[in-house]
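User: Assemble these into one structure.

Assistant: Restating your components, then the assembled model:
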Amino acid sequence: MPRNSEASQKKIMEVAVKIFARKGFDGARVDEIAREAKVNKALIYYYFKSKSLILEEIFRIFNDESSKLIISFFQDQAELEDSEWLITFFDAFMTFLEERKDILKIMITESLKSNENEPPIFGFMNLIFQQDIEKYIQSMKKRGFHMSDDKEQMMVTEFFTDIIPILTYVVFKDKWSRLFGVDKERLKSMFFEAYSSTHLAYHLGQKPK
Amino acid sequence: MPRNSEASQKKIMEVAVKIFARKGFDGARVDEIAREAKVNKALIYYYFKSKSLILEEIFRIFNDESSKLIISFFQDQAELEDSEWLITFFDAFMTFLEERKDILKIMITESLKSNENEPPIFGFMNLIFQQDIEKYIQSMKKRGFHMSDDKEQMMVTEFFTDIIPILTYVVFKDKWSRLFGVDKERLKSMFFEAYSSTHLAYHLGQKPK
Amino acid sequence: MPRNSEASQKKIMEVAVKIFARKGFDGARVDEIAREAKVNKALIYYYFKSKSLILEEIFRIFNDESSKLIISFFQDQAELEDSEWLITFFDAFMTFLEERKDILKIMITESLKSNENEPPIFGFMNLIFQQDIEKYIQSMKKRGFHMSDDKEQMMVTEFFTDIIPILTYVVFKDKWSRLFGVDKERLKSMFFEAYSSTHLAYHLGQKPK
Amino acid sequence: MPRNSEASQKKIMEVAVKIFARKGFDGARVDEIAREAKVNKALIYYYFKSKSLILEEIFRIFNDESSKLIISFFQDQAELEDSEWLITFFDAFMTFLEERKDILKIMITESLKSNENEPPIFGFMNLIFQQDIEKYIQSMKKRGFHMSDDKEQMMVTEFFTDIIPILTYVVFKDKWSRLFGVDKERLKSMFFEAYSSTHLAYHLGQKPK
DNA sequence: AATGAATGAGTGTTCATTCAT
DNA sequence: AATGAATGAACACTCATTCAT
């Protein structure tokens, strides 16, 4: 390993994520990535063919990791108690996303642009439901969760009232906390309260408090 | 080729909204706005001091119009029956947003960037709750909606499980419909079903079906 | 005509010709063209979409002008005496080329590259023989010049032993004169002697002296 | 992947010649040479101090080889019959150049640039006349060829109506054959016909047919 | 002898903005 | 009110060259 190939490459991607999140992909400057990553700008092009391909690589890795997480929860942890499973899953998912909140920002921003590509956020959603949707629905029902039998309805409900609120919370919590002067822990528990009393309540079929 | 101030100015803003939505503010080019609006590029600078100020003007007008809509519903239409009021409000709000979906895209994108400004989406939310939050809560409760007495909690719930899903639906419905091959009317009713069975159910304190 | 569009455009092309000739198209720098033409670099791109298109425009104009010259000699000046016509033509052609020697340098250089385009020098040759080759041959023969009846042979002979020596003389005469310390007038008459005693002698069917 | 000095070095030069010819020296990329020669880019700099020095080495070797060829014909083969000598020389010279046509392309291209160096094509010409020009002229005359007694005139005639047509034929024959759909053998004989009936005719003092 | 990583100085091109009319 | 011309500062990307091993 002459010099430190992997370290440089990793550093570039980390900084790129930060700056893409901060300024948007189009607002980000390759020069700035180089400066902040403390590497020569040409080195970025030594590892990545273009600015866009840095982004694609970021998404690719994110999708890989997401896949693994999802699979592990529907396969490996299948033996957990239902209530325990839910909490474990929610927590793990939340932690996973919070650690990648910059990527989520980029993902949302890029999803809103009007190009021909599939919005990356749809790709992410598809990952979550990647396995046989039938199987997914059955496995959730078996666990006692109320789910629509209509697959299309199920996806709409899960996307707009589950995934989206969670992602939105993750990408906006810092700003919310700062601008409204709310402690982060309290904000988190308020969000969980909101999520429980709407989306979770729906799944559990309980009257919300 | 418009030869009068207002027409040109309006055309510029309309086209700017479209292009900012399509490519993002940073991805948009003043040249392209000029070309598509069929005005000379320098004319844009005759009416707007800079590219950013076009955006600010867009947001300003949007906020003005939003304000008016909100106020009208809490003041002018106060005499409507409760159930009728809710539906009328939801429909009017939805129509209003759908007509401005491009602005919403821009608003979300710009809100995600990390600059010192207040994210425009928070500004939009504040507009909705602009009048005395107390008064708002009371007025909702009076109408029979379950609302948290905790003002902070109320805002969190309304933002992440009401406003956000609605905005997200509006900005993604075209892509969703196209990519998943779902008819727009059906998508709308599925979204309404999702919204009702989670957020509305919470307000109405009913068991969701 | 706000400011001086045409002047700038013309200046850019003139300087581009000079620099492309001096350094080759690939060795030339747009920056240098801008500097030497005393225009802003971006102005170059205001008039020409790319560096390559500057070159294409240069060739286009050169070809137009060549066409006109050729046509004028085969049509307008058809009434001249034969010997007079030849000398007039040769002189006019020579003057025309000497005034455009930089373009010829570029043309030769670009013709040698291996891309899919037709080498510009072939395009130039085709211009010369553009009118019905038959007609051309007949018109030359009528004037008493020996010409091959085989069209392909005729083109080969004219290209390699007429056009090419002339072009080569034009593009190398300055360097020759400087490096071998030969006066330009003398060089010219030596070249004419060489040309007469080989190519012209062939056409005239005379024993060279 | 060659593991020995000479093979790598030779491969680099061969590929460099090909690419310099294809794209011009300035249009050629060291990266591309490395890729096509299947050697590491840094290895090129291990053998050659710079891109320019690759070119200089190419020319140096070409000139050496040319020298040898010329000398052999004026010394070693001096005992051949005159007519035989001429044909043998022309054929050998032609073959030699055809095998090096890529170098000739580079030579012409580089000769056209305006730098202070002696154009390599003049260097090549000087090689041919390197020995005492007097001696050369006498030796040609002795063989019965008509030659100008004026040394300067002789060089002009030989350069522009002998060397240049031959070089030009060699560097353009492939393109000519392809673009005009002429068989290469036929093209060669047409060129020889053109050359004979102009330049050779001059030397032989015969009326061209 | 050979290589993957790294770099400084460019290089063509773009862009928001301004000028002159 | 409107426009074609002009500009300075970037910008993504490239390239010859060197380093460290």
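The two ends of chain A are 60 Å apart (CA to CA).
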